[in-house]
Design a protein that fits this description.
By secondary structure, the protein is mainly α. It is built from 5 helices and no strands. Helix 1 (about 55-70) packs across helix 2 (about 80-90).
């Protein structure tokens, strides 16, 4: 674990963000003390020494969502998403990290390419992904995303 790099860029407030509100709100007094969701998690991935933590988390989360929604087990391209995040931020030639919001914007506008189209090879992080991968990404578009304000909102 000594060679891990975490380059999450804390984002600034954006008044256009939709704030997550649970439709099944529970008060703190009725929340369970312990919840274990590991059985529903996608396989653990290793980002290596690349600062692609946002793309790793987002692609894994979308895979879990897609699996629950449709049973589709397609692994999504973390490297493709990291390149697109940095392309949006103007930093494709450096391991600059990314904003979570930019990763979510990409999922909403472009989707996410399958891992088979652009495998996770950290030596290729500055290379432009293959053109066909953007077409394949359209199969994995999300309709919206919401900001989670705090831990209580997430638990409710």
């Amino acid at each position: 674990m000594g060679n891990r790099v975490y380059k999450l860029k804390p984002d600034n407030e954006d008044l256009r963000d939709r704030i997550f509100k649970s439709v099944q709100f529970k008060t703190m007094s009725v929340l369970p003390k312990i919840v274990d969701l590991r059985s529903g998690c996608s396989p653990v991935v290793d980002q290596g020494s690349l600062g692609s933590c946002t793309a790793n988390a987002i692609a894994s989360g979308l895979r879990e969502y897609w699996e629950k929604l449709s049973g589709d087990l397609t692994r999504l391209s973390r490297l493709w998403l990291y390149w697109e995040e940095r392309n949006m931020e103007g930093t494709v030639n450096e391991d600059a990290g990314a904003y979570i919001r930019d990763g979510m914007k990409i999922l909403q506008k472009m989707g996410c390419a399958p891992e088979a189209d652009w495998p996770y090879d950290t030596t290729k992080f500055t290379q432009t992904p293959p053109e066909n991968s953007s077409k394949e990404a359209l199969s994995f578009i999300i309709s919206e995303y919401h900001r989670v304000s705090d831990l209580t909102s997430l638990k409710s």
